[in-house]
Specification:
The chain is of the alpha/beta class. Helices cover about 40% and strands about 15% of the residues. The strands form 4 sheets. Strands 1, 2, 3, 6, 9, 10, 11, 12 and 13 form a 9-stranded mixed sheet that branches. It has a 6-stranded mixed sheet with strand order 15-14-16-17-18-19, with helices on both faces. The two termini are about 45 Å apart. The chain binds 2-acetamido-2-deoxy-beta-D-glucopyranose (3 copies). One 2-acetamido-2-deoxy-beta-D-glucopyranose (NAG) binds next to loops. This is Glycosyltransferase 61 catalytic domain-containing protein.
Length: about 675
């Protein structure tokens, strides 16, 4: 990697060059013109191996995925000017350094530095991390010198319905704006109109992005519009001015409306879990499967973290739109990211309006805002991806799985990539972090290749395809046997999140009672057994048991986090309260038991638990099912009603077997 071969300053300059991709194409052209051409049409994120040079590139970009090889494989600067390398070189960059980069670009007197091209740091459907993303009049612009074009007209989404905004005054089809560019994902995989989602063909079509949402623009055209604009003052004097204004810092642009944002689960365990997986991993070097890398996969200990996000802009939500009734979202955002600035659609519209003031009075034309580093998230675009769209319905799954396949999810078996957020919340809530589950990966005994099971996919066919791809690349999968290698907790805490005082989705009164009794009995018996065992051999470490019924509305937020952080087994009816699983500590037996009205099932907590290395059971009265024996998604009539059955003794037996290591 750069930092081994070059000084920071050199890395800076190379990075500047590499980001524009000029250096890259010049170098390639110098060596092999046809290769350069060929490379320019290789889709984003892939490399072709049809020439000797490209072989080198392909090898470089795959070998850099292990730290060890990367340090020996980087012999020349030319080899490093790939997109992968640009990303790698940001590894270990403090925020000040990224700031510095933006500053350097803006202070430069060269016109092409005022308007640097847009760079792609990382992309998965619905998750796109940009360098130098532009906005004017509510349209996001990607400035590129790559060839861009219109796609074929066979896309079915548009043919279903003739929407007026898809057509110009002369009947021209506006949906076929510049929506494709070499080396870039399709615009529909990055953004949407940001409208609310319902499951109808009309609504699906109405969420397809139109050119007002996002466009590619050539470097020359961008320069003409914003770079070197000729202005005439009131005395008729002409001068040239740049119309680019920089929004300093790292921005998170949330394009989805408040529809889902206003739920604790969707904001924290979906949006921000995905943001953390994507952002943290994008700035992290890849670590693949090998004995020597194992401690990292089991570690929650981070020495080099990603730069912070400074600003979140909810483009289509007002201040109310992302706040949930119980108030956990606002607690989370302030506790986990105390310095984060939050802007809303009003603030975005302020920027939109300001960009057009000069047009309004005819004096100076439009202004453009430049975001030096921006992560754009879009719910509809994520649902266009295969993993979210057809497997999990979880937008975070696209971000998580992309980074897993890249080998970039640090501490994958213990939610290590999530640990910075989890620990920030623990600290805020007064949880003792060290005791709360910081895991030193070096102490985890696990051998590569033993009973290796596949990942977090539910569809057997896709799971197989992913496993094959993962195996080829040597990426790490999540599986139960990895959890079995973790340390046991020092206490067994079973937390039952009761919904009995909620409006809907409750257990029958009798089943709730029996459940509480069964758990009380179990815990009493276990503690008696422990007493007897300790009397015999006082030196043994046998964890004490505890059972808690948690009614969230009667506890402060701090108390809820404290309870979650101590929880070994989280138990409850499907609902937002189970979101607390993201604050559980990773241990050998950490589990979520989610009660559904049979045959109900949803992916929310199933996927989320597994993404953090926590085992999940779906409980149907007296029957428990766990991965890979996954039920089908189903919302029977009784799903939301207040007569959900559960057989308490069956739950108690499941818990006992789990803690005893039988499951
Ligand atoms: C700015 O955007 C609005 C809404 O899309 C559009 O009606 C208007 O024509 C745009 N202004 C210019 C100058 O392009
Ligand atoms: C975390 O890593 C640092 C440096 O590698 C090490 O000194 C420290 O002991 C580790 N802490 C834990 C809790 O693993
Ligand atoms: C739940 O399971 C128990 C124990 O097997 C059984 O007696 C009861 O009838 C079941 N309830 C329902 C609603 O199926």
């Amino acid at each position: 990697m750069f930092r081994f071969a070059l000084t920071r300053r050199d890395a800076f300059l190379v990075l500047l060059g590499a980001s524009s991709m000029h250096l890259w194409s010049l170098v390639l052209q110098g060596l092999n013109p046809s290769a350069a051409e060929e490379f320019s049409v290789v889709p984003f994120g892939r490399t072709s191996s049809s020439s000797a040079l490209l072989d080198t590139v392909a090898r470089t970009s795959t070998t850099t995925t292990t730290v060890k090889v990367a340090t020996t494989a980087t012999s020349t600067v030319t080899e490093k000017a790939t997109e992968t390398q640009v990303v790698e070189s940001l590894e270990g960059w403090s925020y000040a350094q990224i700031d510095k980069l933006a500053e350097l670009q803006s202070l430069s007197t060269r016109s092409d530095d005022v308007l640097p091209q847009t760079g792609l740091i990382a992309h998965a459907p619905g998750w796109t991390l940009f360098r130098n993303l532009y906005m004017t009049n509510d349209t996001l612009y990607i400035v590129t010198d790559k060839h861009f074009s219109t796609p074929s007209r066979s896309r079915p989404e548009y043919s279903r319905e003739r929407r007026p905004e898809f057509y110009g005054p002369k009947g021209e089809d506006l949906t076929y704006g510049y929506t494709k560019a070499d080396g870039w994902p399709e615009i529909r995989m990055m953004t949407s109109t940001g409208l609310s989602a319902v499951n109808s063909p009309e609504n699906i079509a109405s969420r397809e992005p139109i050119p007002q949402n996002m466009q590619f623009i050539g470097v020359k055209e961008a320069r003409r519009r914003w770079g070197e604009v000729v202005l005439t003052d009131e005395h008729g004097k002409k001068r040239t001015e740049s119309r680019v204004w920089i929004v300093q810092g790292n921005s998170l642009l949330v394009n989805e409306p408040s529809q889902f944002l206003r739920h604790y689960y969707h904001l924290v365990a979906e949006l921000f879990l995905g943001v953390q997986a994507f952002w943290h991993s994008a700035f992290t070097p890849a670590i693949l499967k090998s004995e020597s890398a194992l401690p990292v996969h089991f570690s929650t200990n981070h020495t080099a973290d990603a730069p912070p996000v400074h600003r979140t802009i909810f483009i289509h939500s007002n201040a109310d739109g992302w706040r949930d009734g119980p108030g956990f979202n606002r607690y989370f955002l302030r506790a986990a990211f105390p310095s984060l600035t939050v802007e809303h659609e009003e603030d975005w519209q302020d920027r939109v309006a300001a960009s057009m003031e000069g047009v309004k009075d005819g004096s100076s034309g439009e202004r453009v805002w430049r975001f030096p580093v921006a992560l754009l998230t879009d719910r509809s675009a994520a649902h266009r991806g295969g993993i979210c769209g057809s497997e999990t319905q979880r937008i975070a799954a696209e971000a998580w799985d992309h980074m897993r396949k890249e080998g970039k999810l640090r501490g994958i078996h213990v939610g290590g990539w999530w640990a910075p957020v989890r620990e920030a919340i623990w600290k805020f809530a007064g949880v003792e972090v060290q005791a709360g589950g910081v895991i030193d990966g070096a102490q985890v005994a696990f051998k590569v290749g033993t009973n290796a099971r596949v990942g977090n996919e539910d569809d057997a066919h896709l799971a197989h395809a992913h496993a094959v791809a993962a195996e080829e690349k040597g990426v790490v999968d999540v599986g139960e046997e990895t959890q079995a290698a973790l340390p046991m907790p020092s206490e067994i805490v079973i937390t039952y999140i009761s919904r009995q005082s909620a409006r809907n989705r409750k257990l029958t009164v009798d089943d709730h009672k029996l459940l509480v009794e069964s758990m009380d009995d179990l815990v009493k018996r276990k503690n008696e057994e422990r007493k007897v065992a300790l009397a015999k051999s006082p030196k043994d470490t046998i964890p004490p048991w505890e059972f808690r019924v948690l009614e969230a509305e009667h506890l402060s937020k701090d108390q809820q986090v404290q309870a979650a952080a101590r929880t070994t087994i989280l138990l409850g009816v499907h609902g937002n309260g189970l979101t607390h699983l993201v604050w559980m500590k990773p241990t050998r037996v950490s589990s979520v038991i989610e009660i559904f009205c049979p045959p109900g099932f949803a992916h929310d907590y199933w996927w989320t638990a597994r993404s953090l290395g926590i085992r999940h059971w779906a409980m149907w009265n007296d029957t428990a099912r766990t991965w890979p024996d996954k039920p089908n998604v189903d919302y029977p009539e009784c799903f939301q009603q207040n007569a959900i059955p559960v057989h308490g003794p069956a739950v108690a037996k499941l818990v006992e077997d789990r803690i005893d290591g039988k499951l």
